[in-house]
Design brief:
The structure holds two protein chains of two kinds. Chain A has helices spanning about 1-10, 10-45, 60-70, 70-105, 105-120, 125-135, 140-145, 160-185, 190-195, 200-230, 235-240, 245-255, 260-300. In chain A, helix 5 packs antiparallel against helix 8 and helix 10 (about 200-230) packs antiparallel against helix 13. Chain A is mainly α. Chain B is α+β, with helices and mostly antiparallel strands. Chain B is built from eight helices and 20 strands. In chain B, helix 2 runs parallel beside helix 4. The chains are: A mainly alpha, B alpha+beta.
């Protein structure tokens, strides 16, 4: 308010342009490091052929290839399914953790929260190599399985889809936990007492009170994990070891290894579009179901 | 059921947290249709007691009986209590009707019976027209009525009210208090309620339990609590009063300070006497009794009445009096007062 009055005193013309200068650095940053490169990718994806430099012309060749070639199509579908699986598993594991963190007094919460966030501070490559050591032939899991007699000799644990998904879950779990925690800490615990007083057992309370009220956090957490999963490329490459193809690793290969930028660009654009559709659908569903009480609560 | 059987019984209820005692051997009986109030300052254990009845707090020792059966170790969702929370605790994602139906669904009401019961409850609290609204779209008073309807829909043995009026503004509070009392009396529900507001307790309850640091100080009807307080704490917590420390002589006259003498009972010895301010009047307003000279130390205007603090030769006396407009005394004025001996109550010795 005060700012506006000040600007008003300086004269109409100046006041109406002042905001432009204030947002200019951000706009510049986004323009040069996000919008222009993205536009470059879009343009590249419409080049015919496999040449990355000095290509000319305009064609849908790359997109047709992505959609019609059974290999790329199956990778696309697998990647989306993987995204859904990882976000579901993260939800199932992350919800109880996020909820219980939200219900802890701040003093007890602090250390546990640090434990949750700590993996995010480590380099992804370090985490992945750590996992390979744990899952390797001489690794912890194999030794344990042999010692309890579950298997006779070490088995090959990494380099398959399950291992990739397991490690992706571990990487992205903190995002789900934080998302659920932030929304659960806004749910008044007295509502749970009210539900109990109305003869709801714990499961009914969870299903009919906590889940609907935590839905915004659940949706945003799942979207976040989904995006991170479908765009992952380090983990599938290192842990999958060529056996597991995900869209992120294929794009990486096309752009960095095969130097086929038009195809890489088209794959990236398809990933972007599919992700946008999934996010919009999730938001639409969530908005439809929970819009009214939220908007009325905000209006208050 | 026999009218005098207790619907709710608390036996020697205790609750200790680490080293502090929140509730200290509280025993109570609440009979069918009675409105019982737990009254006390914050931290006196009244809310903890209420929460032990609802099952949200587990007693350290003692037991809670609802309709004769011991529920001390029963989970909250198995107990036959209906609670109206201080913040109302309405489910924000459900409409008024859905809030009321929530409990009915949990005890297996069929869809049709649910609709009927919800409608009946909405009629009871006069909110039929708001059944499709969400809690955030209601005023505080309306939210309170929804919370009440939600609790009553379950037809609980005991209704629990936690500071039910504290979130409402003063005017609304008085009106809703009268309405709610009339409603609860009409449906004859046994009610336990908690408040720190002595005025609320006096006008709302059939019986008042005054609590202090986890213990019961006095149990009695509102009039008993006000007129014949059992302890100094009760006397000072409920309403206003002058407190005199003195002695009763052989003639049954109580003497305190330099000049105050009042006829009392015939038990000689030291005594603590309280006098409610309405028994102290300007000399001309009361026909008989000894006259005391008093100096006004403060005069607070309350509309219909003025509350005065007076100094009677070093002894503080409180008076409530009506003065015609413009004729009230000011601070420092010397006035003559009379104390009605009927209003002098001796506190039981401890």
């Amino acid at each position: 308010m005060r700012n506006k009055a000040l600007l008003g005193l300086r004269g109409q013309g100046e006041a109406s342009t002042a905001w432009m200068w204030q947002i200019a650095p951000t706009v510049m940053l986004l323009l040069f490091f996000f919008i222009l490169p993205l536009a470059g990718v879009v343009r590249t994806s419409f080049y015919p052929g496999t040449r990355s430099f000095g290509a000319e012309g305009f064609s849908f060749e790359q997109y047709l290839k992505v959609i019609l070639d059974p290999f790329y199509r199956s990778v696309l579908i697998d990647t989306i399914v993987d995204g859904l699986i990882v976000s579901m598993v993260c939800l199932v594991i992350g919800f109880p953790v996020g909820y219980s963190l939200a219900r802890l007094p701040p003093k007890q919460r602090r250390w546990r929260l640090i434990l949750v966030i700590l993996p995010l501070t480590l380099s992804l490559v370090v985490i992945v190599f750590g996992w390979i050591v744990i899952l390797g032939r001489g690794g912890l899991v194999n030794q344990l399985l042999v010692s309890i007699g579950a298997i006779d000799r070490p088995i090959r644990l990494p380099y398959n889809r399950t291992a990739v998904l397991l490690i992706l879950v571990q990487q992205f779990l903190p995002y789900m936990i934080l998302s659920v925690m932030s929304v659960c800490s806004k749910i008044d615990p007295v509502l749970e007492h009210a539900a109990a007083n109305l003869r709801a057992n714990r499961f009914t309370t969870f299903r009919r009170v906590i889940v609907p009220l935590a839905a915004p956090g659940i949706v945003s957490g799942m979207i976040l994990v989904f995006i991170l999963t479908v765009s992952a490329f380090v983990t599938p490459r290192l842990v999958g070891g060529g056996n597991v193809q995900m869209l992120g690793s294929i794009i990486y290969e096309q752009v960095i290894v095969a130097l086929n930028w038009p195809l890489g660009g088209a794959l990236a654009m398809v990933l972007l579009i599919v992700t946008s559709i999934v996010i919009s659908l999730a938001n639409l569903l969530a908005a439809k179901k929970f819009a009214r009480h939220r908007s009325s609560a905000n209006a208050k | 059921m026999d009218k005098n059987t207790a619907v709710l019984t608390l036996k020697n209820l205790n609750k200790t947290y680490d080293n502090t005692t929140a509730v200290d051997s509280v025993s109570l009986d609440v009979v069918k249709g009675e409105l019982l109030c737990l009254l006390g300052p914050s931290g006196c254990g009244k809310t903890t007691t209420l929460r032990m009845v609802a099952g949200f707090v587990k007693p350290t020792s003692g037991s809670v009986l609802i309709q004769g059966s011991d529920v001390t170790n029963q989970a909250p969702y198995r107990r036959d209590t209906g609670m109206v929370f201080q913040s109302y605790a309405l489910f924000p994602h459900m409409t008024v009707a859905q809030n009321i139906a929530f409990g009915l669904q949990n005890i297996g009401f069929a869809a049709k019976a649910q609709t009927e019961r919800v409608h009946e409850m909405l009629q009871l609290v006069e909110l039929e027209h708001l059944s499709k609204r969400f809690p955030a779209e209601l005023s505080g008073g309306q939210q309170q009525r929804v919370a009440l309807a939600r609790a009553l829909a379950m037809n609980p043995a005991v209704l629990l009210l936690d500071e039910p009026f504290s979130n409402l503004d003063a005017q609304l509070r008085v009106r809703l208090r009268e309405d709610l009392r009339a409603l609860l009396k009409r449906i004859r529900i046994t009610t336990l309620f908690v408040t720190h507001d002595q005025e609320e307790a006096l006008m709302f309850a059939d019986r008042v339990v005054v609590m202090r640091s986890g213990r019961v100080e006095q149990v009695g009807s509102p009039a008993e609590i006000y007129e014949t307080p059992a302890t100094r704490f009760v006397a000072e917590f409920i309403g206003w009063c002058s407190l005199f420390e003195g002695v009763v002589d052989g003639q049954g006259v109580f003497t305190t300070g330099k000049s105050i003498r009042l006829p009392l009972d015939h038990k000689p010895g030291p005594a603590t006497v309280i006098v409610r301010p309405e028994y102290v009047k300007p000399a001309e307003a009361l026909g008989s009794g000894p006259v005391f000279e008093a100096r006004v130390t403060s005069n607070t205007y309350y509309g219909a009445l003025c509350r005065l603090r007076l100094d009677v030769s070093g002894q503080e006396v409180l008076m409530e009096a009506h003065y015609p407009y413009g004729h009230g005394p000011s601070i420092g004025d010397r006035i003559e007062i009379r104390i009605d001996p009927k209003g002098a109550r001796r506190l039981p010795a401890h």
